[in-house]
Structures are given as C-alpha cells and as structure tokens.
Design brief:
It contains 10 helices and 9 strands.
Length: 288
C-alpha cells in the first residue's frame, strides 16, 4: 500500500464539505466547554506551565509577530471556528475582521461572544474558503488561516482565492497540520489514512509541498517555519482535559461523533510524538 500525501484520500468535495459543516455544528458547543473559545493548538516553550487558554493565545501572539496589524487592517479569518482569533485581533488592534466558517453553530457562538465583549469591528458569515464568493478582488490586507486548511478539499484552490482577495502587498498567514513525507508505504500509509479519515482531512501535504503551492501562485514566501516542537504538547493537554469527562458527559455534550473524535485524539498525539505530523507556519506576500 502506497499513499501520496499531496493527493486526496477523501475524494468527494461536496460530501466532505457537508460532513465537516455538520461535524462542527454538532460538536462546537461541547468542545467549547472542554477547550474554550479557541479550538487550535497552544504554543509551549522552555517547559513553561500555561493554561490551555494562555498557550492558545500565545500561539496567536507568536503569529501576530509575523504580521504588521493596525487599526486600519482589514483581515479575513478563514475557518474562524467560534471566532477566537477574529475576536482577539479585533479587540487588540481594533482591526476590521471578517470571520468565515461552514458552520452555522459556530457563527452563532462567535456573534454571541462579539456582543458579550462589545466588539463592533468584527463580523461573521457562512462562506466556503474554496470560493470566497462574497468577496471582491483586492479586498483584504491579511488573510488569516489558523488550523483550517487541513480540512480544505483543495489546498491549491484556497491559496488561489486567498491571492485573489488580498490587496497588492497583502499577506497570507497560514498555519496548518502537515505530513513529514510526500509518500507513505505499508504501516505508515495505513496510519496516515486512518488519521485523515478520523479528522476529516482530505489530505495533509508536507511543509515543502505547501511552499511549492504558494510559490506557484506567485506569492513571495517570506517565512516557512516548523513549530511542531512548540505545539505537540497541546495533544497531551487535550487528552487530559477530555479524560476529565466520562462517556455519558462527552456523549451529552457533542453526541456520538464528538465522543469518537475525543477518543481519536490519541492518534494525533502519537503522530506528533513520532514526527509524522508537523505544524507548518507560512507567511506569504502578494507582490505589489
């Protein structure tokens, strides 16, 4: 058995898009109780002790350091989840932020939080990252994609759309899960395939493959970073958080699919610890 990580293992775009939307509609409320408003990795260094929320906001802060965000910035948060990054950026910088997701439930949660925090420069809408049909060319200063691209059916198409909606000189910040090899055989191929199916990942290319996609689209790739060592602890922390709940509690919070997802986190933990899963961060600029 041989699998190429730059080709889809899940091949039906309409079906997987619908499945991902349903998944987040179903589990977001329960997952917020476990993880909080942010549903992405945390950033840990120097053996520091941080709460999950502190580590997650530290990851955002580390990404912000790569950018020049001001109150004049127009930001598109692609795959905004429950609005964690959008709200953080809008509150800290008074930037104008638009968050998009496939999940109606996530939009409802994000809008509720924006109202609660009295943040007026942020909005949320239902939108497919592969079309960005609501947005005109040359609209945004920054496209922010934090741990969403791994679930996109066509990474190249998203990168094309990001390029289109960015203003000349605009920046794409992309942080996503990656594989360590272009091809897997035998047992490693089976583990990769199982991981993709478990987390609804159509495919998970390498960091270098992503660099190639960005360069092909004529982006100027300013930074390519591997943050695997800084984020891997997130899965250890996540499993300990999940283990604080019993079967019935998890089932009540997010249904059978959410419970199954919680059980499958050990697969991702193993992938990071064995070096098969990488965490790639890219900063790409649209030429002027």
């Amino acid at each position: 058995m041989m699998i190429k990580t730059y080709e889809p293992v899940i091949t039906h775009r309409t079906e997987i898009t619908k499945k991902i939307a349903q998944f987040w509609d179903q589990i977001s409320e329960g997952w917020r109780k476990v993880w909080g408003q942010h549903i992405h990795h945390g950033y840990y260094e120097n053996n520091e002790t941080l709460t999950p929320h502190e580590a997650q906001e530290k990851l955002i802060e580390k990404l912000v350091e790569l950018l020049n965000i001001t109150s004049q910035s127009h930001i598109l948060d692609v795959g905004c989840g429950m609005g964690g990054s959008s709200l953080y950026l809008a509150k800290k910088f008074q930037a104008n932020v638009t968050g998009i997701t496939l999940s109606k439930k996530q939009i409802a949660i994000a809008e509720q939080q924006a109202k609660k925090l009295n943040i007026s420069t942020v909005s949320f809408k239902l939108e497919d990252a592969l079309s960005l049909a609501s947005f005109a060319d040359n609209t945004f200063d920054i496209v922010w994609s934090l741990e969403s691209c791994e679930q996109f059916f066509d990474k190249n198409l998203f990168i094309q759309q990001a390029y289109r909606v960015l203003k000349p000189g605009g920046k794409l910040m992309l942080a996503t899960w990656c594989s360590d090899q272009n091809e897997y055989a035998g047992t490693l191929a089976k583990k990769y395939q199982k991981l993709c199916y478990a987390f609804d990942l159509p495919y998970m290319p390498t960091i270098e493959h992503y660099r190639g996609l960005l360069e092909t689209q004529k982006f100027s790739v300013n930074r390519v970073l591997d943050w695997s060592q800084y984020v891997a602890k997130s899965w250890d922390v996540g499993i300990s958080l999940v283990n604080a709940y019993n079967f019935l509690q998890l089932l009540k919070m997010s249904g059978w699919r959410g419970f199954r997802f919680a059980q499958q986190t050990k697969m991702m933990q193993e992938g990071f610890h064995q070096g098969r899963v990488k965490y790639g961060v890219f900063l790409a600029v649209k030429p002027i």
